[in-house]
Amino acid sequence: MRRKAGGGPGKNAKPDTWELRLYVAGQTPKSLAAFANLKKICEEHLKGKYHIEVVDLLKNPQLASGDQILAIPTLVRKLPPPIKKIIGDLSNTLRVLVGLDVRPKT
């Protein structure tokens, strides 16, 4: 399962586009919750400026080594630098925003 969602076309992303990769293991409740929570956060705080790639490690386990994935679900912020990682279902919006270095809308 490699799904893409959001504002940009991956490799041709604009400099202000957030490149996010979510590693999951199948369609588990935790994986589905992580994707739903991430999509909601991105729509609220990064609308039109993000690209999400979902990598299912059950189908592509070799992809885990590239980003040194040890637990799932794991979110990796590829762009803007530096690379950041957040582990879990992303249900704590404030923690995700802090982890991604996104300023919450007031």
Structure description:
- This protein is about 25% helix and about 25% strand.
- The chain is of the alpha+beta class and about 110 residues long.
- It has a single domain, classed as Glutaredoxin (3-Layer(aba) Sandwich), CATH 3.40.30.10.
- The protein has a five-stranded mixed β-sheet, covered by helices on one side.
- Strand 4 (about 75-80) and strand 5 (about 85) form a beta hairpin.
Which helices and strands, and how do they pair?
Elements: E1 2-6, E2 18-24, H1 29-45, E3 50-56, E4 74-79, E5 84-87, H2 93-100
Parallel strand pairs: 2-3
Antiparallel strand pairs: 1-3, 2-4, 4-5
Keywords, please?
24% helix; 106 residues; single chain; 5-stranded mixed sheet
Task: Fill in the CATH topology.
Answer: Glutaredoxin
Quickly name the level 1 CATH class.
Alpha Beta
Reading the helices and strands in chain order gives EEHEEEH
Large-scale geometry: globular
CATH superfamily: Glutaredoxin
Query: How many helices?
Result: 2
What is the CA–CA distance across the termini? 35 Å
Q: Would you tell me the structural class of the helices and strands?
A: alpha+beta
Our estimate of the beta-strand percent is 25-35%
Round the mean pLDDT to the nearest integer and report it: 88
Biggest sheet: strand arrangement:
1-3-2-4-5
Give the CATH architecture: 3-Layer(aba) Sandwich
